[in-house]
Amino acid sequence: MRILIFSMEFADPIFSGNGVLARTYATELVKQHHTVDVITSYPVSAWVDKAEVKTGWMSNDIASTDAATPPFHKKNDQQKPLYIALPVPETKWRKLDWNGPHDYYAQGCLEYFQPSSQEKNAASTKDEVSKSSHLSVFECVFNKARSVFYREEEDEPCTKHDNKTIDSIFIVDWHGFVAFEKIKSQWTGTNSKDFGTNQQQQPKIIFLNFRVFANSILLPETKSEEFMFYKKMETATMESSHATVCLAETDKKMLLSMVSSSCDASSHPVFILPPALQPNLISRCSATWKSLPMSLNNFDAVKEDVDDPRKGTFLLCSCVRLDPTKNALKFVEIVEELVKRNNNNQKSNNGHFSLVKSKKYPQACVIPFLCGAAANVEYANSVRNRLRQACSIANGDIDDNNKVNCIIREDFVTSDELVRYFQSSILNVHPCEYDAFGMTVSESAACGVLSITHGERRYDSKNYDASSTSVSTIFDKKNGGDKLHQPKECWDSNVGACGLFDYQKSEIILTDFRKPATEIANAIEPLLLSLLERAVECAQSNGQTSSLPD
Hints:
The chain has 15 helices and 15 strands. By secondary structure, it is an alpha/beta fold. It has two domains: about 1-210, no CATH class; about 280-540, Glycogen Phosphorylase B (Rossmann fold), CATH 3.40.50.
């Protein structure tokens, strides 16, 4: 098939799971021998109205642009999704809400795919004979893309699609719909579902909903202007699509409620398709815990060029976008509470900083690891600075350059790097009160790391035995596929990924992240200690922490 994807986030630099998932869809479709072109955007620091439109291709986790070597579809080489990226202001980038760059993205599409007067007149004519002799709106869009991506004088274009038909159009979230509608609006007399030259040539429009924005969990004021804007856009996207695909049961219910009053609600089916793990992550992940290496230089630690002489150092990690909707500050508040309890003097834990102290293994340490792009710069800086401050004060000297007490990654982490961090982690804190899916929950599980997420069924530390958790085996190749394809309704949780795990088998831990950090720390502290001691024993059995006492 020939597929066109509208995704505002796809080209570098991506900043959220939406960009990762859009790339995954495009890459996997190409592997299935489909031809994929993407209409996307990219940030420009010095914004001008006529900034350069870029073309690029996806390869090895990276969306590349190279003006000297532009990408082309070739007859014998169709293994790369290709894209056209429209410029948007950098000041709007890293935002997916209504303050983001969607208007600039849509306007760029409008101008770049401007139809000729002849094409516009043909689209609006009532003469079906005359109309059928012209290409439809998105066939013209494809011709424009084809003129960029194909060089007929050097490489034959793919003959498989020489009939100029478009099979499917994928719209990622409401931002993609805004761009889609802008292009369509240039052609009068057309409906979103009816712009082919005939019934057989009409492409299927699929709404890929990676997150419900008209969300009463995140926006409790359901009559607010922002909520009503999202509801209008998402309802229109569903009604203009042949089908909607979302990530979890919670989102499906919210989406269906938007069109439930429609007289033809049955014509708007919603399907659940949980996002798959990236292939290179699956191939590299391991269920065995590994302590951090002697040198932390490669981990971009808070203090550069610092060697940590300790072994038996593990991570308490949190990998979410640094935005209030992700509740990232709650992770720092929990760390602050654990610091107060376990580091009230710099002689604790043999002089080493640790979020919990083990009498059984006094040299073993747990330090926090924060990873997430800055969607809201002011908020992100506040989160990072508070974490640095908490961990520095804990060691008794804010300027102490001899110890690394926390690790903060401010850039977007590749899947290979993420695996490396998870392999050194013992618990993943996912503090979001709502998350359409929460990819790092399943990614951490693939590396054998338990996650604690938001949910009504709160964790009771008295009934938990770290040695009984099956999180390290649930993604075993023998049964992982069955689990991934049978999502359950999340146990009173609004984090979609929870539906892949069995709460009763301790494959995931739920707690109420709306509670004060003190109460959450009461749940996490004994769990963290139990996991630390188990991790040390696991690492010792693999000869990785020989300096620790038996």
